[in-house]
Amino acid sequence: MPKDIYGLESLDFFVFDIRYKADGKPLPVMKRRELAENYGFTQVKLFGEFAIEKAPAEITEIIRELGKTEHEGVVIKDPEMVLQPIKYTCSESNNADLRHAFRFYNDSGRDYMFPRVVREGFQSFEWNESEEELRERCLRLGESILRPMIQSIREVENNRRISEDVRIRVKNRDTIDRFRSYLERLGVDVVFSEPERVGDEYLVRINKVNQSTTDKTKSILEGQLWS
Amino acid sequence: MPKDIYGLESLDFFVFDIRYKADGKPLPVMKRRELAENYGFTQVKLFGEFAIEKAPAEITEIIRELGKTEHEGVVIKDPEMVLQPIKYTCSESNNADLRHAFRFYNDSGRDYMFPRVVREGFQSFEWNESEEELRERCLRLGESILRPMIQSIREVENNRRISEDVRIRVKNRDTIDRFRSYLERLGVDVVFSEPERVGDEYLVRINKVNQSTTDKTKSILEGQLWS
Q1: A194 vs A211: which has the higher pLDDT
Q2: Domain region containing A20
Q3: B 19-78 residues with CB below 8 A of A?
Q4: Is B219 inside any structural domain?
Q5: Any CB–CB contact under 8 A between B130 and chain A?
Q6: Nearest CA to B68 among B87, B49, B48, B95?
Q7: A123 lies in some domain
Q8: B194 lies in some domain
Q9: Which of B94, B57, B56, B99 has the alpha carbon at shortest distance from B72?
């Protein structure tokens, strides 16, 4: 989902891993960081290197802090890159994803929901939450699911279509037309704004209709049954 | 899910509809009730017959009352049986179903969840809930999902297997063995209690292991990733 929190004006490339071409083996984390830095590539923030027995407590603390600003979470890597990396997301980010998904509940709610809900359950268990913390988590989860859905139902009742706004920035005006035909070929229902000049780029706002959620909500409001 | 609220000791047959054999046309509701009563068949409770403009308010009231005792809900029928019947469930029953499903989240959580969650969203909209009512509904939903899941995680951590108890009553001891072989042929992992004599029947408790939830939880607790 779109996040405005990384301070990026436009797109950017990040180096996550560097691998040998022949056998696909990854460089150790610190070697990769050094190499990427020497060549001027952008990398994600390194929060630190932790001994394995201290890592759970340190990472829990980082996750709690990141959650406060709705950052997504961390990827935990073996410095030698032998063990598989582990992605660990903040509860706030899970909930932000759910809020986004449930606004378009019939387009993206179903499959999206289950893994995030399970993460919430395991995190509460791992953190050995108090009754009060668990209650807050349950409320947060319920609100992330129901509030955006109800907002969408209201909008359809007021004859609006459920849609989301996305923005793209391109260097070349031609790219806009080519992206539009690409989306139309995919059958996505989109409205493009007039391109706006920003620095040496064009900014285009795209309104994308979530047809499935709009239609389903309309049909239920008109008395059709769920199926 | 098993409900203990209908005051039944064992199984019972209920007549819901009576149809003509030749063309499948249903009898009007009142005719069906009369006929079934004359023949001594059990039927579900009739809450009343309502004019169409009064029905929404009356049924809302019934649903709120039924919810308090976790009854499932109502089936709304056209007296002439021309329009399709509509099943309308209580929020409390949706949540009871979710609590049951999320205890066995990896066996029954996924597909089970979505329609019930959507019902909660529409009911809140239909009832035009206050901020306080909506908050309570969100909390109820979140708790129905997370609490049973966390309980299951705790049980697996304590080396218990996630299982559910069901009971059957049979007239004939042979039926028990035949039911057991049937379940074993299906690959269901079950433990049968010793049959207990109750009146002219045998009561058997069956413990059914939810292998998928047990295994998945165990593997995550041992450090495997969700997939």
Answers
A1: A194
A2: 1-89
A3: none
A4: no
A5: no
A6: B95
A7: yes
A8: yes
A9: B94
Does B110 reach chain A within 8 Å, measured CB to CB? yes
Residue A40 CB contacts under 8 Å (≥ 6 apart), including other chains = none
CA-nearest residue of chain B to A120? Answer: B146
The whole-number pLDDT of residue A115 equals 84
Q: B154: which chain A residues are within 8 Å (Cβ-Cβ)?
A: 125
* Residues A107 and B112 sit within 8 Å (Cβ to Cβ): no
Q: Residue A11 is part of a domain; what is its CATH number?
A: 3.30.470.30
Stretch (H or E) spanning B46: none
Does residue A60 share a domain with residue A109? no
Neighbours of B196 (CB within 10 A): 12
Please indicate whether, in this complex, the C-beta atoms of A110 and B114 are within 8 angstroms of each other: yes
Q: What is the mean pLDDT of chain A?
A: 88
* Residues in CB range of B45: below 8 A, 6 or more apart: none
pLDDT at residue number B7: 58
- The residues near B137 (Cβ < 8 Å, ≥ 6 apart) are A142, A146, B91, B120, B124, B129
Minimal-distance CA residue of chain B relative to A143? B138
Residue B99 contacts A where some CB pair is shorter than 8 Å: no
In 3D space, the residue among A14, A132, A89, A150 whose CA is nearest the CA of residue B119 turns out to be A150
B134·A122 Cβ contact <8 A:
no
Query: Structure pTM?
Result: 0.78
Interface test with A, best of B102, B117, B212 (most A CBs within 10 A): B117
Residue whose entry in the numeric block shows the structure tokens 């460089």: A27
* Distance from chain centroid for Cα A40: 26
Which ipTM value was assigned to this complex? 0.77
> Between A and B, how many CB-CB pairs are < 8 A?
108
Q: What angle do CA B71, B72, B77 make, to 5 degrees?
A: 115
**A139 and B CB contact within 8 Å:** yes
